[in-house]
Design brief:
elongated, Serine Threonine Protein Phosphatase 5, Tetratricopeptide repeat, about 700 residues, 33 helices, mainly alpha, repeat, nucleus, about 60% helix
Amino acid sequence: MKTMSMRSTRAEFATMPSVYTVDVLEETLNERIQHYLELHLHDNAIFLAERLVAHNRAEENLLQLATCYYRAGKVARAIAVLENAKRPENRYLLALCCFQQNKLVEAENALQSGESRPYMGNTISIENVPNGAAGMYLMGRICRRANRRQQAIDYFTKALEMDATLWSAYEELCDLGANIDSVKFFTAVPMLSDDFSSGPEDDFPVDNSKADGNSAYRTPQFRTPSTPRDTLARLSGTRHAVSTPAPLSYRTPNAANNYSTPAFGSPQEVVKKSRIGGINGAPNPRARKTYRRPLTETDEKQRRNARLSFSSAISEDSPQDFSKGDSGITPLATRLFQSNNSPAGSPKSKPTSQRKAHEGRTQLLQLLSAFGAIYQKNSVYMCREALELLDRLPKNQLSSGWAQLQIGRAHFELADYKQAQYVFRALYQGEQYRMAGLDLYSTTLWHLKKEVGLSYLAQQVTEFDKLSPEAWCVAGNCFSLQKEHDTALSFFQRSIQLDPYYTYAYTLSGHEYVANEDFEKAINCYRHAIRVDPRHYNAWYGLGTIYYRQEKFEFAEYHFRRALEINPRSSLLHCFLGMVLHSMQQFDEALDALAIASELQPLNPQARFQRANVLITLHRYDEAMEELNAVRNFAPRESSVHFMMGRVAKKLGRVDEAMRCFTTALYFHPKDNNIIKSAIDKINEPDLDDDDRL
């Protein structure tokens, strides 16, 4: 009996191919793979994908397996599966995986179908790039990482022209310093007349020029009109035009900048947990299929749509329906990217559906235009203008984490550290999962000497996410404030290990090496930061300070001027440039630079103190005393200020006043008692060395 049962089972397996055709098995495996990917059961999806490839090693099935590996974080395996890929969808995923592995040549060849073409002028090769705007965006990222700036700008611009909602491409353009206007990209298409419109999809042109005929892999591309119109956000009844130059990265902690200014403004609301609803992502346009019967001939046309696409699958036979959902911002992404598989409505419903689609697109582009103007202003350090634009946002958007981060960043760059601390604290209390901006928050606490607050923040973020480079940057700043520079360096190096392109960590490492007076290693760190991001002005500033301390004034001047080209509104940079010019005996230029520093930040005592120093060199003692009196009001316990006032008073023949100033300086800084006592002993003697300073 047992033998008979085994033979019966074998016979059943032998008859399976006659029951389940190849198409039926592939269809079933594809549906189950998609199901388990949606449930994030990657191992199970990988197992079924391997069965699919073993059954039929077609490129479509290889894409399924590679996608499973990619979703599971096994990028190297995905690359191995997609080797020698020919289909556009396979080449796109291969390029994405190679980019994550920092294989830039392989990534570019995959996108260009193996045809590497030289870059000529302002032309870019787009003929073979798959996936439309997404492919252009990936090409831009590859070019940027390869330090081909202009080519990267061209690809990002093309990506935005093909899809105006690809916000990441706009951020890349701002970070690269492209002179762009948000209105150029985020402009609504004029509403067509009902008599000449054929349906709601007419207002959302799709670029399928790179498609290979398989509509299941086509993605909606929202194109920008060739003639931009001024449709910048009127979200609060106000128009605001934008035209700004190049952006940059963030300021780094430095003892010379340890001062603060009165708050320019305050955050409009306490940060809430609400985010921009409906914009951050779109749901899968295809509903999950159920386990179903074998296909019949009538079902054959729908078979290919079961394959997993790397982008939203939109069939040519099923036009998009943008009329679902209430009007407003929150459900916008769902309305924009959701495909409609139901039959088209009646002719009377088409104009209404088109109007709703146009209204939704207009609202989205107005929102992106407003956010684009804000990001652009902050990128070029026009922080006060950015705060004004932020104040015009609707309350629900103003209270979002992104908007509050921009407010905190603006106050940070204005050296208004107290107000920045207030904004960042409220932000991270409301959104503890947000890692972006933690480097600025911790640097703010570093400037304010908040050891307890910085220690608490470092403990919280490192426990929350040990794989975040920003978290270890916070820990490094914490130990830097406690003068434990070697420990701080180890944390900054950990941050670099997690993200080798984290520019700020290189710059902070350079600061710690400077504190240890290891200038060679500090220079290497600053140069590495510039290689990663040539527009990181903090690294140029760091190199300038080293050369200034080494009395290489020409080199120092060059690096400070390069930093000022990037951030011309930095009072600190103008102040250091003035100090260098003073050392080079270019007194008029030094006074001009220090005057700009004072104008940009009227409450900056360092700029006025250095200006007084230059005036003393020029024997303009009355003007110098006026500047020093102003500095004393800001820093009444600063010994060097009182000592300098004593020297000026002596030059003016006010011996009693000079004695009072020297005595006060000795009281506040007894460590320099030899220098101060020597000045007191010689108070009735003429000065032989005008360069005596603390």
